[in-house]
Design brief:
The chain has two domains: about 50 residues; about 190 residues, Galactose-binding domain-like (Jelly Rolls), CATH 2.60.120.260. Helices cover about 20% and strands about 40% of the residues. The chain is built from two helices and 14 strands. The strands form three sheets. Strands 1, 3, 6, 9, 12 and 14 form a six-stranded antiparallel β-sheet that branches. Strand 4 and strand 5 form a beta hairpin.
Amino acid sequence: MYLVFYVYCSIIFFIKESTMRREVKAFILSLAIGSLVLIVGGGNIMVQAQEAQQPKKQQTGLVEDWMDDFEACEDWRAASTCPIGETKIRKIPGKPRPIDDNGNEINYPDTITDDNGITHENKYVLGVKTYYLDRGYDRVEVFPPNEYIIRGKAKEVKLWALGRKFRHTLYIKLRDYRGTIHKIKIGRLDFWGWRELSVVIPGWLPQSPGYALLDKNLHFVSFYVESDLYEVPGTFYFYLDNFRVITDLSEFTGDTSIRDNW
């Protein structure tokens, strides 16, 4: 950089001391400035390219992958088996507000940084409204804009739910690599306030085994809530937030260019 500055000053001094015509001086000065810009700009481009080429740390072992934080849940949709009433979703301002054993509200953070280094805000939740008429049969299903591919080998599903003391049951639908749909029970929504729900992915679900490189990822299809046989029919609300999956990425270490899928 000092050398470039020295050359530039020398050219300026030469132009001032010389007896060239004004047009020639202007041309030489423009050429010198252009060369300086190219040299400095090229150096910046090289530095940026080197920074971009720096590889990220490869993740291994158990990782908490965020499927959706529902900060942009406008494209989610809901469908109900009940022909009457209203079924819809809404993006509701709010965040999980858990309560401890003494009834005091726990301060839930406004932002969370996941294992991938991505920061998630907690400004909105996904609200679902539906109507149940036929007890034990009616259900409402909540779909994402598209199926989410779960990388690695899924171990556990976690999410926050706001219950209204109804005994309806929350399920998750997963699709395996064969196209088969699996319905896994997460739990009842028979509680007041926010609660973190979780369910362990059964070992019999077809997935990529931990000792081989296979393209057999599970797909998240939807959530659905089934009405309880002994619950009173009527309008039903529930809310979801911070949908995550605990997944094992150990199988992705080593030579990922060769996969056992032939």
